[in-house]
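Comment on the following before class.
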Amino acid sequence: MRILVVEDEARLAEFVREGLVLAGHVADGADNGATALEMAATTPYDAILLDLMLPGQNGLDVLRNLREFGITTPVIIVSALSGTEHVIRGLDAGALDYLRKPFAFDELLARLRTLQRRPTATEVPVLRLADLELDLVHRRVSRAGQVLSLTNREFALLELLLRSPNRVVTKTRIAEKVWEVDFDMGSNVIEVHLSQLRRKLDRAFPNLPPLLETVIGHGYRLHDPAAAR
């Protein structure tokens, strides 16, 4: 998941972002409401963790503005305001969940997993292409029944490609979804990670047709060999 952490307390924000990255997510940060709104409007986040006591525009106003702007990204409020009235206001304003500070980080991860399991019109818990399967909930990948050991970044890359089967995904799109907002587009980091993913996905199965393609000058795609017949 790509997650926006909206928190003005620097140490807590860094702790949460580092923990999310270690758990396999991509995490960006905003320390005020105006920045959070701008980032949420320009980046396709899967979830937003939103503090209520922010400088300038408070968290409830941020949440109301998100919904007024048509941004439907799921929001989990994370706040030291623990009274029932605050929880009710947050949920009524459009939040899906409310986590009181201080919190156990494992609880935050569990709530994110619950969010991932919520059914939507386009979401399925397992993505498939040919003999390749990616389980979003259990973070498990297999090809031809053999479990693959992927890094967090490789998992995110594969998920993105599997969400657009047989279609080219550009390097810009990959950077937007899998890397942080300050990613250097001039580096070869994406190519390196895709090379490693190809090694595990295709080269490890020499008797099977390759699935990952480089479309020179355009980007990358996962294709089903049977679809070309």
